[in-house]
């Protein structure tokens, strides 16, 4: 059974790996045996790197603004240069801009789509080409409850996360015959910087908590098991699935 989830010898590229969900996922993949290339923008990757190395695994820090398309090829190239291959891509980097639709600036809309969606397409394409050559690979996109629902005051974010779910299915269909599984994780309401504004709003925070059957906000570590599952041989017959990890939010 252990072998099914074992990532020993696998190479992962994780975006947004310096903090929040991306950090927990990167360390979790390393706990399962993977070495990792860690992409960060404003947060230094040092802490994540240290945690991975203390597990006896290797980690390489890469800095890039994923909204800048010209920076993306080097992320895949440097990963392959250093580790010789790329087995797992986790498209985790994401931003949210909270303003009502009527006032939502085009600049915010554009920035959210560049980070949350366009980078996912381009990085998946770049890593996907390598995986096609290798005949195997795992791509995990981080979706959201707002891949299914409308949300409030976050039109760009909702549009981007619906599109991430659609892109996951499109890539999964094309690449399944090539031995590549593309799936997504849709986290529920997790305690990270992304949801700080919601948790600071007493009313919203209470309303959200009341709707979560599990009775608590999610922790970054709640994504580790699902991420290892989708990165490992245990999910080899899963293609294009959007896995909700939400304490039951979606089924209430
Ligand atoms: P977070 O704590 O706000 O972290 C955002 C992450 O994205 C950081 O690692 C950040 O890196 C990275 N990032 C943002 N803009 C970037 C850019 N231009 N280039 C490179 N990296 C960039 O958020 P989180 O909660 O961990 O969110 C991670 C993912 O989960 C996002 O896709 C988010 O939409 C999704 N999600 C979160 C929740 C939740 O409840 N928290 C729910 C559903 C989905 P730097 O710090 O290095 O800039």
Q: Uncertain segments of ≥5 residues (pLDDT<50)?
A: none
Cα-to-Cα separation, first versus last residue = 33 Å
Strand content: 15-25%
* CATH domain class name: Alpha Beta
Q: What name goes with the CATH superfamily?
A: NAD(P)-binding Rossmann-like Domain
Average pLDDT, rounded to a whole number, is 98
Organism: Cohnella zeiphila
GO molecular function, one term: NAD binding
Keywords: Oxidoreductase
InterPro entries: 2-deoxy-D-gluc_3_DH (IPR011286), KR_dom (IPR057326), NAD(P)-bd_dom_sf (IPR036291), Sc_DH/Rdtase_CS (IPR020904), SDR_fam (IPR002347)
Describe the structure.
The protein has 252 residues and is of the alpha/beta class. The protein has a single domain, classed as 3-Layer(aba) Sandwich (Rossmann fold). The protein contains 9 helices and 7 strands; from the N terminus they run αβαβαβαβαβαβαααβ. The protein has a 7-stranded parallel beta sheet, with helices on both faces. Helix 2 packs across helix 9 and helix 5 runs parallel beside helix 6. NADP nicotinamide-adenine-dinucleotide phosphate (NAP) binds next to helix 2. GO terms for molecular function: 2-dehydro-3-deoxy-D-gluconate 5-dehydrogenase activity; 2-deoxy-D-gluconate 3-dehydrogenase activity; NAD binding.
